[in-house]
Design brief:
Porin; 12 strands; single chain; 46% strand
Length: 183
């Protein structure tokens, strides 16, 4: 099991990089939110606040501090997101999957489809500080977030040997950002 820590500013729409460190306080990755256009930024920062996040359009990238490897999560256009929100997932520029959301009264869910037989499901109970990620009925990610302070602090434990830690961090960050903007 590997544990990672990072902090992000309360204003989730900030494009500042967050440094992800391991248990030995060694920088391993960077995570950041970005927009493809001024229109995406306006929808998220301007209308998103007024419409409870329903117009939020954002993208996430996770980069390795040691290699040139990266994962990017590009949100599909609003007209493709009328029922649930979707992100195309890329590893080093190649499409590897599709990330989808489902919001519920008591529990929010996001799942990553990595082909016909592989999926990773992330779940969080409303207003909970914990998020869990599951693959093949096993917990592969457990995240605890300190909220309601000027800086959100995330502690993420990853136990998956099958999936890249950067990918799981990216799915978590996309899920967390989406929940923050839609709450």
């Amino acid at each position: 099991m590997t544990t990672y820590f990072y902090r992000e500013h309360l204003i989730n729409t900030s494009q500042q990089e967050s440094v992800v460190s391991d248990a030995e306080n060694k920088q391993r990755y960077t995570v950041n939110l970005f927009y493809n256009s001024k229109w995406q930024r306006f929808l998220t920062q301007g209308l998103g606040a007024l419409m409870n996040g329903s117009t939020s359009v954002f993208n996430i990238t996770v980069k390795s501090s040691e290699t040139r490897s990266n994962y990017s999560f590009y949100q599909q256009p609003l007209h493709k997101n009328l029922i649930g929100t979707k992100w195309d997932v890329y590893h080093n520029g190649d499409t590897i999957g599709l990330l989808k959301t489902k919001l519920d009264v008591s529990k929010d869910t996001m799942w990553l489809e990595l082909g016909e037989e592989q999926s990773i499901v992330f779940e969080s109970v409303k207003l909970s500080a914990k998020t869990y990620g599951y693959a093949r009925d096993e917990t592969v990610v457990e995240a605890h977030t300190e909220r309601f302070s000027p800086v959100s602090r995330h502690e993420i434990e990853i136990s998956s040997k099958e999936h890249d830690d950067m990918l799981l961090l990216g799915v978590f960050q996309t899920f967390f950002t989406f929940l923050e903007l839609s709450s």
